[in-house]
């Protein structure tokens, strides 16, 4: 949660805090991880262990491994940065498209119509991941694929939406009460 606050701080307004973050499941990161592990680390160092130990080959392997580590870090950030943030003010949908490109969409709790999720297949059921869809009053849908614990995300949305709407109603009732008392006071002053 602290990491979420640090990484996604630029998407937050003043006084806004992250209450819950819905990330993609780690299974989404598994294919690039395996590919980089095999081609970036195991294969080159396997050739080294088989006897390819010339200084040029070792230099190439070290450079190749460093590039593979950078690519692994890039894929890790890409996986982690596609997220839905539930804050005390709204839902922020962040999508990372590269080092210098990301998008952020803000949807107010009052604009959400509902949420649904679907878990597909054996692995989705066993590892508890699935697709979650947020329905917006405007009729559009926002989809996050392969989210971990979609039921937990759904419950978090309902909880934070209810809390936000309740506090908003209390603030509106307080404002209405204050406005009515000012109107009565004004009416009584003019009546005298």
Strand order of the largest sheet: 1-2-3-4
Q: What's the overall average pLDDT, rounded?
A: 85
Shape: elongated
The total strand number stands at 7
**Which runs of at least 5 residues are low in confidence (pLDDT < 50)?**
none
What share of the residues lie within helices? 40-55%
Predict the CATH topology of the largest domain. PH-domain like
CATH class of the largest domain: Mainly Beta
CATH architecture of the largest domain: Roll
How many separate helices? 5
The helix-strand sequence is HEHHEEEEHEEH
Quick one: CATH superfamily of the largest domain?
Pleckstrin-homology domain (PH domain)/Phosphotyrosine-binding domain (PTB)
Radius of gyration over C-alpha positions, nearest whole angstrom: 25 Å
Number of spatially distinct domains: 2
Binned strand content: 25-35%
By helix and strand content, what is the structural category?
alpha+beta
C-alpha end-to-end distance? 59 Å
Secondary-structure map:
Elements: H1 2-7, E1 18-23, H2 30-49, H3 55-81, E2 83-87, E3 90-98, E4 101-108, E5 112-118, H4 121-127, E6 129-136, E7 141-148, H5 150-191
Antiparallel strand pairs: 1-2, 2-3, 3-4, 5-6, 6-7
Helix pairs in contact: 2-3
Report a brief summary of the structure.
The protein is an alpha+beta fold and about 190 residues long.
Describe this structure in words.
The chain has 192 residues and is α+β, with helices and mostly antiparallel strands. The protein folds into 2 domains: 2-24 and 82-191, Roll (PH-domain like); 34-77, no CATH class. Helix content is 53%, strand content 27%. The chain has 5 helices and 7 strands, in the order αβααββββαββα. The chain has helices spanning 2-7, 30-49, 55-81, 121-127, 150-191, and strands spanning 18-23, 83-87, 90-98, 101-108, 112-118, 129-136, 141-148. It has a 4-stranded antiparallel sheet. A hairpin with a 2-residue loop joins strand 3 (90-98) and strand 4 (101-108). Helix 2 (30-49) packs antiparallel against helix 3 (55-81). The radius of gyration is 25 Å and the shape is elongated. The chain starts with a helix and ends with a helix.
């Amino acid at each position: 949660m602290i990491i979420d606050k640090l990484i996604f701080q630029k998407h937050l307004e003043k006084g806004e805090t992250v209450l819950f973050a819905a990330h993609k499941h780690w299974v989404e990161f598994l294919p690039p991880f395996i590919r980089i592990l095999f081609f970036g680390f195991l294969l080159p160092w396997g050739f080294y262990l088989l006897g390819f130990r010339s200084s040029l080959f070792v230099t190439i392997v070290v450079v190749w491994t460093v590039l593979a580590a950078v690519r692994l870090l890039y894929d890790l950030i890409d996986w982690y940065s596609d997220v839905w943030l539930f804050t005390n003010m709204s839902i922020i949908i962040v999508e990372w498209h590269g080092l210098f490109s990301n998008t952020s969409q803000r949807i107010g709790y009052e604009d959400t119509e509902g949420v649904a999720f679907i878990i597909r297949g054996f692995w989705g059921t066993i590892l508890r991941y699935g697709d979650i869809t947020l329905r917006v009053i405007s009729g559009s849908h926002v989809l996050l694929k392969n989210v971990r614990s979609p039921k937990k995300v759904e419950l978090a949305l309902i909880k934070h939406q209810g809390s936000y709407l309740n506090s908003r109603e209390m603030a509106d009732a307080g404002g209405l009460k204050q406005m009515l008392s000012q109107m009565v006071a004004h009416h009584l002053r003019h009546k005298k």
